[in-house]
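Q&A log
Question type: sequence-to-structure
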Amino acid sequence: MTAESENTLRVAQQAFEHFEHGLATGEWSVFLDMLTEDFTFWFPMGKFHGLNVGKERAREFFQYVAESFRGGITLILERLTSNETTVVFEFRDEGLLLGQPYKNRIAVSFDVRGDKICGYREYFGSDGKSY
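Response status: OK
Response body:
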């Protein structure tokens, strides 16, 4: 593993810990601090569908996540894959979405630049009610 790959993995794992904390508690500030100002993210549905640009837009998105999952989400990490610039986390998550039971399979990727996350993509894997 190259030094660049090791750094990418280290930064992404730290960001994922903050991401997991945000999902569990609705507190996203530490995760948001790890984002670059030109951060981009892709989301597969809803009002954030498609490509979104900028740290402020990310703040809006994660606030929306916190409001949608008021009781928090728990997750179980199942797989991690990485290269020199990107780390993909595959996990199962569970909680209440707008007060209704929610379970899903998710894959998120973090693109790393230096010690920050510059890109995020999220993919869903089930109907939201099953594993």
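Response note: The beta strands are 35-43, 50-53, 73-82, 86-97, 100-113, 116-124.
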